[in-house]
């Protein structure tokens, strides 16, 4: 289960890097799915998919410290630390991320995605 869901996360990040995120998440998310984003917005499936049409692509991404929390055969939460960069001088985005998956008609679907930003260490520490 961990390998399957981690592969979906990688596919999602790759779609956010190559500009196909709206199509990917449009297929992956449940009809009543939601994204809780680091800047404080909660987007339903349609709003999340629409927002990805205009999102600048990520240049790189990394997934670390992944952990699976199984909730039965057809439900699970994947928790990890994600770090991504865009082109230019923008600082890297690092967050604790959780994705709640449910299996529907034999396929995993994303029901909820949530980000909690991890502040970059300050230079004066």
TrEMBL record:
InterPro entries: DUF4440, NTF2-like_dom_sf. Pfam families: DUF4440. Residues 5-110 form the DUF4440 domain. Gene3D superfamilies: 3.10.450.50. Transmembrane segments: none annotated. This is Nuclear transport factor 2 family protein. It comes from Microbacterium helvum.
């Amino acid at each position: 289960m961990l390998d399957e869901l981690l592969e979906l996360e990688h596919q999602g990040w790759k779609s956010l890097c190559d500009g196909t995120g709206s199509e990917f998440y449009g297929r992956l998310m449940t009809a009543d799915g939601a994204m809780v984003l680091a800047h404080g917005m909660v987007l339903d499936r349609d709003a999340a998919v629409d927002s990805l049409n205009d999102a600048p692509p990520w240049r790189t991404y990394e997934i670390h410290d992944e952990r699976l929390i199984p909730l039965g055969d057809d439900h699970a939460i994947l928790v990890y630390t994600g770090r991504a960069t865009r082109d230019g001088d923008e600082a890297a985005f690092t967050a604790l991320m959780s994705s709640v998956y449910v299996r529907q008609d034999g396929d995993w679907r994303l029901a909820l995605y949530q980000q909690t930003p991890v502040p970059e260490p300050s230079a004066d520490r």
